[in-house]
Amino acid sequence: MTRNVAAAANRQSHRLSVAPMMDWTDRHCRVFHRMMTRRAMLYTEMVTAPAVIHGPKPRLLDFSPQEHPVALQLGGSDPRELASAVRIARDWGYDEINLNVGCPSDRVQSGCFGAVLMERPALVAECLRAMIGESPVPVTVKCRIGVDEQVPEEVLPDFLAQVAGAGVRHVVIHARKAWLKGLSPKENREIPPLDYGLVLGMKGLFPHLTICLNGGVTTLAQARDLLGQGLDGVMVGRAAYHDPASVLIGADALWGEDFAPDAVAVVKAMQPYIAAHLQGGGRLHQITRHMLGLFTGRPGARGWRRVLSEGASRPGAGLGLLDAALAEVDQAAPAAALG
Fold this sequence. Notes:
alpha/beta, 9 strands, globular, TIM Barrel, eight-stranded parallel beta barrel
């Protein structure tokens, strides 16, 4: 495969992706999302390089084959540690390795990684070279447009030039600044204004890069519009978690495919996976906590959430509870139609 053909394939694979979200996008969540879209790229929660090196590797890195395509997001700022983490992760067969240069949490700053690395692009480039040297799959970056008093129009082009110089061909840009002083992580997701124009401008400056936009995208219609303006991809975050059906069911149309199961079919498709998890000693709520928003906006959604929220964490909770929750949806639908 030539470089140009490979780049085109990479751009196609990232037309829509689901963002890495701490405490949310674990392996069970990713399987659930995969039942709604065959094509969207799924990202793990961020795992720090030291955790991969010294921690319980199967617990941190295991995933199910049906999750593909799936990317591992790493956090860190030591090139040697990141290279070691990538080398370890090779055996797991991820489709992509992503470096976190966007998380603004205090915990991340204290470790000198995440968004604070926007201030140290040369170090980021060094980390990326080390990671690429150990990776058989693409190494990518997720970043912000800048931090604190930085002028995004000045720092972002330099940042992209340095990571491209390190060999990276794909960057996900969260189209907001991160204020490391004065705003909480939640506020950093909402208060700094979005600048889609700047991200679109970076595609013009770096046409050879696959550039995906993250931040503020809540519908497939928005994603289509941004792709139509020339971006290579769109990454959806919290909307894909809180209202997954509206964002992910039908998303494969972005690739010209018609896979679009309804929400009830998604529940049925999850049952064998849930049964295997329970058979292995797992708990129902470990999976169903990610499924609470599946029927958002539909009749019976409140009953679905109530049954699962109240019962899934109880000892012995199994597929019968899932059927009971689904019955709340089935019973509400005729009443809504009559009303």
